[in-house]
Amino acid sequence: MNVNVAIVGTGGFSRMHAEVLAEMKDVCVKAFCGTSMEKAAAIAQEFNAKPYEHIDQMLVEEEIDALYICVPPFAHGDIEQKAIDRKIPFFVEKPLGVKDEEPRQIEEQVKRYNLITSVGYHFRYQETVIQMKKYLQANTVGMATGRWIGSMPEVAWWRDQKRSGGQFIEQTTHIVDLLRYVVGEVKEVYASYATRAMDKKYDGVSVADVGAVILTLENGSVATITNTCIVPGNLSEVGLSIYTSEGVLEWTPERLKECIGDQVSEHDNKCNPYKRESEAFIHAVQTGDRSRILSSYEDAYKTFKVTEAALRSANSGTAVKLEDEF
After folding, report:
1. Which of 16, 175, 230, 273 is 20 to 30 A distant from 123 in Cα terms?
2. 5, 66 in Cβ contact below 8 A?
3. Which residues are CB-contacts of 231 (< 8 A; sequence separation ≥ 6)?
4. Kindly report the CA angle at 21 between 16 and 23, in degrees rounded to 5?
5. Within 10 Å of residue 219's Cβ, how many Cβ atoms?
6. What is the secondary structure of 304-323 as a DSSP string?
């Protein structure tokens, strides 16, 4: 089955996904939709696709088998709804939104119509993450510590709480998702956020630039995840450390370090997880087999709920229990 794909969004992630899709057999990138015809035309020309400024026009004029949604957090909701209305399978980049209302409504409809979906938590597709998950299934986790340390992205919407949701929702969501995937579900969240430096460096900063979150998991283990966007970019650090009775696992996007007893081994990530996630999604569209999709919309919504609960906790100063919210 030949799969005709349309992409909503014209940024770096749209181009990256288009490049992956263009190399896949029986896949055609048919159209791009952007916030302006100029932006859409610029990227569409690169892939011999048709540009659109309005998604309704694109979905009417093109025969689309799958939709890729690569837009900022505040732009989610209406696009996914249009895909659902037309029963078009969709791949969406994280996060799912800024506030809970729209992702919750989308999740309910995706489940109701049994629509094929995938969400861009690409770390799940890494060889090192698969290896880490397999090891942890046979060992008891006591504690985990995660981090997303870096600089503030040079885009105005990212600094705006109402448009980005803040760093924990927009970036650190990857670490939350990994914790859920390899360790277990979260039942309680307590967070403390602050703004220390970035509001003095940039105009219009309403997001916190430092944060610490404590998570209690359903299996009894505990975790802490910290993030900040105040350090220079060359000092960035992303990772997840997991402590078990048998040893310690240190994961970064580049490699996995296993310290088991007296043995230390390192495993580099050699695959392209972006390619793997698209192959899994396109395979599902072609065959109906969803077994290779590691993050559906329904699953990703659970990650979103944890990050959104952290924001609520930071605002209220109290812990948020997730057990009764699903």
Report:
1. 230
2. yes
3. 149, 150, 151
4. 105
5. 11
6. HHHHHHHHHHHHHTS-EE-T
pTM of the model: 0.97
Phi, psi of 292 (to 5 degrees): -90, -10
Indicate the angle between helix axes 37-46 and 12-22, nearest 10 degrees. 30
Backbone angles phi, psi at 210, to 5 degrees: -140, 150
pLDDT attached to residue 326: 66
Q: How far apart are CA 240 and CA 162, in angstroms?
A: 28
| Exposure string for 13-49, b = 16+ CB within 10 A, e = fewer | bbbebbebbeebeebbbbbbbbeeeebbbebbeebeb
Q: Using omega within 30 degrees of 0 as the cis cutoff, is the peptide bond preceding 95 cis?
A: yes
Residues 6+ apart with CB under 8 A from 66: 3, 4, 5, 6, 88, 89, 90, 91, 281, 282, 285
Query: How far is Cα 110 from Cα 228, in angstroms, rounded to an integer?
Result: 33
